Structure formats: C-alpha cells, structure tokens
Description:
By secondary structure, this protein is an alpha+beta fold. It has two domains: 6-111, Beta-grasp domain (Ubiquitin-like (UB roll), Roll), CATH 3.10.20; 114-130 and 138-248, Alpha-helical ferredoxin (Fumarate Reductase Iron-sulfur Protein, Chain B, domain 2, Orthogonal Bundle). 31% of the residues lie in helices and 13% in strands. The protein has helices at residues 36-45, 114-122, 143-152, 160-164, 177-187, 196-202, 217-221, 228-248; strands at residues 6-13, 22-29, 73-76, 79-82, 95-98, 105-107, 110-111. The chain has a five-stranded mixed sheet with strand order 2-1-5-3-4. A two-stranded antiparallel sheet has the order 6-7. Helix 3 runs antiparallel to helix 5 and helix 5 packs across helix 8. It is elongated. The termini are far apart. Residues 146-174 form the 4Fe-4S ferredoxin-type domain. It is an enzyme of class 1 (oxidoreductase). This is succinate dehydrogenase. Its EC number is 1.3.5.1. Pfam families: Fer2_3, Fer4_8.
Amino acid sequence: MSEQQTIHLIVTRQDEPNGTPYQEEFKIPYRKNMNVISAMMEIQRNPVNAKGEKVAPVAWESNCLEEVCGACSMVINGRPRQACTALIDKLEQPIRIEPMKTFPVIRDLIVDRSRMFDALKRVKAWIPIDGTHDLGPGPRQPETERQWRYELSKCMTCGVCLEACPNVNSKSNFIGPFAVGQVQLFNSHPTGAMNKEERLGSLLDDGGLQECGNSQNCVQACPKGIPLTTAIAKTNREATKYMFRKWLSM
C-alpha cells in the first residue's frame, strides 16, 4: 500500500431524505496511516470526483475520532463499522462506503438514529432518583457484577448491531440487541432493579425479545465487543420468570 499514490473510493450518496441514492467515485492522494475519516476530510478539502468534476463535499458525521461516540457508523466494504478505526492500509480497494440501511438517510452518509433513542425511552434505560440531594455512597457490589455492568455500559448507541442484525428489517419491529443490553445493565444494578419488572414488561411487547433470532451477528459486529448475546440470554430468562409470576398472580 505504501507504494500506492492514490486511494480509490466509491461513495453511495443521497442529496436529500427522499432523494435517489447514487454512487460517486473519488481518487484522493494517499498518505500513511490514513483512516476513512481522514479520506472524507480530504474530499471535503478538495471536492472533485474521479471525473475531475467539482461536486458537493460528502456529508458524514464524526466527533471523538477514537471509537467512543459512535457517530461515524457507516458500511465500509460491506461491513458496518466505525469509520474512525477503519484504516485505509487494511481495506481492499476500491473502498466502497455506504450509509447504514437500517436507518433513514438524511444526506449521504448521515442517517437518522432516532429509533435507537426512542428504544432507550421505551425500556427506561436510566435509574430514577428522588431529588438532586446527596444520596450518600451506593450499595457495595461484588467485583464480578461490577465488571459485567462495565462491559454493558460500553454501548455508544452507534447502530452497528442493528445494521448487522437480520431480524431488524422492514418486516420486523425488533427493538434491537443494544436495547436488551441496556435493560440488562440497569436491571442488574441494585438500585436499578427497583424498576426491573417495568423494563422486562417493555421487552415483552411488540418488537421485543421474541423477535430475536439468535443469529449472533450483533456480538460479532459490535465495535466495543459487548457480550450482547449473553445479555439477551440472561434477559430472556428473567423475562420468562416475570411472565410466569405475572400469570400465576392473575
């Protein structure tokens, strides 16, 4: 790669939310240690396509540039991932860059991830507290449980697990693996467990746990290596117990 002087990109673009997608090719100068974000910045600096035509710069999102914010999710060479950690030297050319198809496209590579934030509201992915006064030290917790919650807390709402999941499609309302992981995160906390049944109940409605086909694509695609399938299995077991308790109390 070091001998190559240019980088060949094929970007799927869309000028507006209801516009027709089209592909545009770019050839930009190669520099050592570039990632896809730096390639996008080069196009932004000099927005000329491979035909030599002046075009509008490619629109994309990014923020932290260290795989923490989740903003730069896109499909690169057929794989949903973070553009900031997609190194040019490790990608086969031409590099094909597309927006995630699971979400509505706003423009070019920018998508609307509102469904993810709506899902977090649905499962109440927070711990309610009474007022803003000092509550004192939290409950003591075993280290193994703390480590388990830490792994779940790495979720950056990037959308990659939804893009990789075959059960997230136009024929299914599946809430997505990330939401189940967040239910497990808060339900396994001593204080969060106060709202455990409420969260479990939200996952038994339309688009809940029953829509998961256990393909395990999510855990393979997750940029943070979150044990999503383990979280889904644990939550499934807890939801089943909750459902039986509810049935027996009727």
